[in-house]
Design a protein that fits this description.
The structure holds 2 protein chains of 2 kinds. Chain A is mostly helical. In chain A, 78% of the residues lie in helices and 0% in strands. Chain A contains 10 helices and no strands. By secondary structure, chain B is mainly α. Classes of the chains: A mainly alpha, B mainly alpha.
Chain lengths: 265, 253
């Protein structure tokens, strides 16, 4: 059967999906286990069990919670700052031609410069600490947000706008009740892109210039040659990254049930 | 005329503001537009900038090619055969959220800090966008095209290169475009982080780190940043040119 029926998949299909998931992961871990036995150098490739113990160890002494919490907090702060600046800016750029003309060039000039390339200059400006990773994430998240919002606003159906105007809705109410809801799917997709990009950038920023956070933890354990801990923290980064995206996807289906669930590139 | 004036107003205004702020702060080290232009001239004249850039670009292209060679065939199979996709998807989805930079310490342990490590990082970063877009490209091929090919008795191999590949090509190229952008960011990050750990593997990222950590020449950093931006822009334009050239029938952005 090629096409799945619409709506919720039947229960046994879901159970089968879970089964396939665990089977694949078990095979993967099995290959890893055998590979680790063959290489038999714990520095190069620790076995899955020692990574599991490292994970448990980090969870028990609070390292894990501390670094994960630090990184997530930085992510939230940076995303809030990016949203506060990026959403209104994207809105006015999408709404008005002259704002677009005024901002297009600086945005197009700055956008190709990766947030990560700002790290050395940011080290000079902010030093090592909390500000540096937050700034790098903010910068990384800002451009997808501005561009996604502007595109969403520009894509508002002309007929909707005309209909609203005919009924005498103009100005702020028009923006709030017509333009924003219609741009919301695009805004949320750009938010997901921005969070994914920022999560990548935080690891790089913490790897170089922060005294805490998941990126710092990875670098610290690498310098201690504790490869099992390095892999444990990489796993945590992956899990948190996919959890934040799941959360945003939930928000997407909740806020904009009419938009199709899309997988990010 | 007025339109041009509005467009140029904000960048020129920003540059002037930047220059004035630096002059007012009186800090001798802070880079201003004028010192950046001088530094850019010096770095270009001495060939340092081009050397660093070309090292990084070669690494990115090498890693990108490796990624495409693995991801495109794998994506074709995963997109075409449902059971392969179902079985491999958990592993792909487990690794996809792990950023290339996060596995950098592991790669350094395994491959050192030379070109191989850099190429591995780039290949990892570029792999997932290409794979995901290839899969979705193959899955979204018009079923009637495939059925028609079936009816006409084409062999699986002919079906692959005569029907599936051209139909999935626009999506694959979009994936490659995203991948190249991600790969360029990844190489900068990798070279920066490696630069922080000594070793002399070159590249634009490490050049920036040297300017920061050793010669404390901030104008040089800004020149490198601008160069990073220019290369990112050019790479993107190059791929989108290829996109319209190879698949003129698609209107994918």
């Amino acid at each position: 059967m090629r096409t799945a029926p619409a709506g919720r998949p039947p229960r046994n299909a879901r159970a089968h999906g879970v089964l396939v998931y665990f089977r694949t992961m078990l095979i993967f871990i099995g290959i890893w286990f055998v590979g680790a036995m063959l290489i038999s150098n714990r520095l190069l490739l620790p076995s899955p069990t020692s990574v599991f113990w490292a994970l448990l160890d980090a969870a028990r002494d609070g390292d894990l919670a501390f670094h994960a919490f630090t990184s997530l907090l930085r992510l939230v702060v940076a995303m809030l700052a990016a949203a506060v600046i990026g959403l209104p800016l994207g809105l006015v750029i999408g709404l008005s031609r002259s704002w677009e003309d005024a901002f297009e060039l600086p945005i197009e000039l700055l956008r190709p410069i990766a947030g990560i390339a700002w790290i050395p200059l940011a080290l000079f400006m902010f030093g090592i600490g909390n500000t540096l990773p937050v700034f790098i994430m903010f910068y990384t998240a800002l451009f997808p947000l501005i561009i996604g919002t502007a595109a969403g606003v520009r894509g508002t159906d002309r007929r909707l706008l005309a209909a609203a105007r005919t009924m005498g809705v103009t100005g702020m109410p028009l923006v709030l009740h017509v333009v924003l809801p219609s741009a919301l799917p695009s805004i949320i997709v750009s938010l997901r892109l921005a969070v994914a990009a920022a999560w990548t950038a935080v690891v790089a920023a913490e790897l170089v210039g922060a005294p805490s956070g998941l990126g710092y933890a990875i670098e610290y354990f690498r310098s201690m040659l504790a490869t099992d801990h390095v892999i444990a923290f990489i796993v945590v980064i992956g899990i948190l990254g996919s959890l934040t995206d799941k959360l945003l996807r939930l928000a997407e289906t909740w806020l904009t049930p009419w938009s199709r669930d899309r997988v990010l590139p | 005329m007025k339109w041009l004036a509005i467009r140029l107003m904000s960048p020129v205004g920003l540059l002037v503001l930047w220059e004035v702020l630096v002059r007012l702060s009186g800090s001798p080290r802070a880079p201003s537009p004028s010192t950046v232009f001088v530094a850019a001239g010096e770095l270009i004249a001495s060939g340092e900038l081009l050397a660093g850039l070309s090292t990084s670009i070669v690494r990115v292209l090498a890693g990108f090619v490796v990624a495409c060679l693995v991801a495109v065939p794998l994506g074709l199979v995963m997109g075409a055969v449902r059971s392969v996709e179902r079985n491999l998807d958990p592993v792909v989805e487990s690794f996809r959220p792990v950023a290339a930079i996060a596995i950098l310490p592991l790669v350094i342990l395994w491959l050192g800090t030379g070109n191989t490590a850099a190429i591995a990082i780039v290949a990892y970063a570029a792999f997932f966008p290409v794979l995901v877009n290839t899969i979705s490209g193959v899955k979204n091929v018009e079923p009637s095209l495939l059925r028609a090919a079936h009816t006409m008795g084409l062999s699986p191999l002919t079906r692959l290169h005569a029907v599936l590949l051209p139909a999935a090509m626009p999506s694959i190229l979009v994936g490659m475009r995203i991948a190249l952008g991600v790969a360029w960011t990844a190489i900068i990050a990798a070279e920066l982080a490696v630069g922080a750990k000594s070793g002399s593997s070159g590249g634009i990222g490490q050049m920036m780190f040297v300017f920061y950590a050793y010669s404390i020449q901030l104008s040089g950093i800004v020149v490198c940043m601008a160069a990073v931006g220019v290369v990112a822009f050019c790479l993107d334009r190059l791929v989108s040119l290829c996109l319209t050239f190879i698949t003129p029938w698609s209107n994918a952005r």
